[in-house]
Design a protein that fits this description.
The protein is of the alpha+beta class. The chain has helices at about 1-10, 15-30, 35-50, 95-110; strands spanning about 55, 60-65, 70-75, 80, 85-90, 115-120, 125-130. The chain has a single domain (about 1-130), classed as Alpha-Beta Complex (Lambda Exonuclease, Chain A), CATH 3.90.320. A hairpin with a 3-residue loop joins strand 4 and strand 5 (about 85-90). Helix 2 (about 15-30) crosses helix 3.
């Protein structure tokens, strides 16, 4: 029983991620690498829409410090299905800072899963799961 629960947590939002990853792979297949992040974001928004995957783009979220709301806000690139943050990059390699950024977005939003997507990697797109 305990092992079964652990397996379910390990593949958090499996079906949703499978659908989202399909859209990501299609964008990369069509566009390749070498464009700016904004181009990939626009393409991915179009692909998610075509596939009927609900998402919000650049939703402004509040930050809290010691129980007090900050004036500073943050806007993850996409939130899919109301529960998965997508942070898009177009860099040669994913860096620890990118992972830390997504981890902080998860912590601040209360969401549990994020996908760090790097369209700048060749020969294939990189997708890193970050679970809080």
């Amino acid at each position: 029983m305990n092992h079964e629960r652990h397996e379910k947590e390990k593949i958090l939002y499996k079906d949703e991620c499978y659908r989202i990853q399909g859209a990501i792979f299609e964008v990369y297949r069509e566009m390749g690498c070498g464009f700016l992040e904004a181009v990939y974001q626009e393409c991915l928004e179009k692909e998610l829409s075509m596939r009927g995957i609900p998402f919000v783009s650049q939703q402004e979220l509040s930050l809290v410090f010691k129980g007090e709301k900050l004036n500073q806000k943050y806007s993850p690139d996409l939130i899919c299905d109301g529960k998965i943050i997508l942070e898009l990059k177009a860099v040669k390699e994913i860096a620890k800072e990118h992972e830390a950024q997504l981890h902080n977005y998860l912590k601040a939003s209360g969401l549990r899963l994020g996908l760090l997507v790097n369209f700048g990697h060749y020969p294939k797109v990189q997708i890193k799961r970050i679970i809080l």
